Amino acid sequence: MFSTLKKFFKSTRFKITFWYSALFLLLEILIGVIIYVHLHTSLRNQLDHSLERQAEVIYNLVSESKVDLSDFKPDSLYTSADDFVYDLIYEAVVFNSRNTYVQVQLNKKIIFKTDNLKKQRLEFPDAKRNSTKTRFREEAFNNTKIRAACFQKGRYKIIVAFPLELIDETLKSLTDVYIVLGPLFFFVSFCGGFLLSRRSLKRMDAIIKKTEMITALNLDERIEGEEFNDEYGRLAKTLNRMINRIKVAVDYMNQFSVSASHELKTPLTILRGEIEVALKTAKTFDNLKEILLSNYEETLRLINIVDKLFFLSKLDNQLISLKKEKVSLLEFLETAALPMGYLGEKKNIKILLDVEEDFDFEIDAGLMKEAMTNLIENAIKYGDENQSIKVAGRKDKKEIRISVANKGLGIPPEEIKNIFERFYRVDSSRNRTSGGVGLGLAVVDSIVKWHGGRIEVKSTPGYETEFTIVLN
Ligand code: ADP
Fold it and tell me: Strand, coil or helix: what is 469?
């Protein structure tokens, strides 16, 4: 249970959903803050505007009154200036007497104030001389906060105030709505995000499931969805290409182990047969010697195969380091090719060197000699009798080209691409008299590639074959 939860929290699905919802929530908060600030300022502006208008209207009414308010004479209608002003401004200005505070001063003396002010009075310092600009201030009044506007002109000072409580209440209810809706929005966006990510990751799940099912035994299977031109399509395509490469490598390894066991089994079977015959039938020392000699040849063949395989695996795993040194072309070819001359004596084959111009170049001379030995051995093995093998070296532009050419049966064009594969032999060479096991050219190929070079093959069946090592 705990591990499932842990897995869920670590999943891409959860991460996508979480970030999606968090972003959504952040956006919601941002919009909320913007609305709040905007509403707050516009309510304040509206309030200031209406306070200012009210103060000015009251000023106009009282200042234009024909009655001398500084020396008010009570009559049967109005017992005080306060009564008179109340009537005067009440008729002209519609205001909520319960919430709006109004105070009218004439020559610093209060001649009118609304009942809600009771015994208190609104204080506002005098304006700077000649300034008729409405001034605003906030103050605490009867445990509430009020915003007051003061319009002062001539002998009159009009103060109109309004409790801020109402604006605060409006803003508070907006905040309350956000506090309730915020988590709800977050929850809804989380669920929505989860469903969305589940839908979009469904194909990913299918790809994972299918990939998990692929083993060395079913490398023919392919992941579906390559046809879609999106990330999943690309992922399926990439994985399928990788499976293909693995399949080629596994097929190669399988083929290799079949060939290797076959090549190793043949001399071992011959050895066993010969030993059995010796044990059953050999009577004289000469009989035994003859069989032992044949055993010895088969053992050499086995050692040759194992040596070459070992050498190849060392090259494959880069366990052999390149010890490059400067050598002269002529000197290298003389030491690599001429000592092989004795091998050709049986077939009356001569080795001829063809070097027009000597120069120095850098190679691992030991490894490259091994490659040359294999090429010359082949030229002798597969070449015609009574001819010569031409070993040539030259520089062509920036490339160094070393070739071994012989007259003989040659290689059919369709076989050329295969001859560098391990244990591959052209059918005509698949007889034990050639002595080959199909590893010589694989060794040459690995050595040349290790040097960063390549091999070119030119063969005219029935006439001539030329292998060229090309180094940059
Ligand atoms: P092998 O041990 O059989 O010689 P190689 O890997 O050296 O194995 O060569 C692979 C095959 O390429 C040989 O079996 C042979 O058929 C062909 N081949 C190589 N060199 C020559 C050549 N000079 N002339 C004709 N065929 C050749």
Answer: strand
Residue 95 has a pLDDT of 57
* Cβ of residue 378 lying under 6 Å from some atom of ligand 1: yes
Compute the distance between CA of residue 367 and CA of residue 322 in angstroms, rounded to an integer: 8
pLDDT on residue 94: 56
Read off the pLDDT of residues 359-396 as tens digits, 9 standing for 90 and up.
999 999 999 999 999 999 999 999 999 999 999 999 99
Q: What is the pLDDT of residues 217-228, one digit of tens each?
A: 899 999 999 998
Domain final residue, candidates 299, 314, 329: 314
Instruction: Please tell me the distance between residue 75's alpha carbon and the centre of ligand 1 in angstroms.
Output: 140
**8 Å CB contact between 369 and 395:** no
Atom index in ligand 1 nearest the CA of residue 404 equals 23
Q: Please name the residues in contact with 12: beta carbons below 8 A apart, sequence gap of 6 or more.
A: 197, 201, 204
Residue 248 domain boundaries? 231-314
> Tell me, what CATH number does 286's domain have?
1.10.287.130
Using the Cα atoms of residue 190, residue 192, residue 195 and residue 199 in order, give the sign of their dihedral.
negative
- Tell whether ligand 1 has an atom less than 6 A from the beta carbon of residue 437: yes
Co-location of 414 and 452 in the same domain? yes
Measured from the CB, is residue 444 less than 6 Å from ligand 1? no
Same domain, 67 and 14: yes
Domains in the chain: how many in total? 3
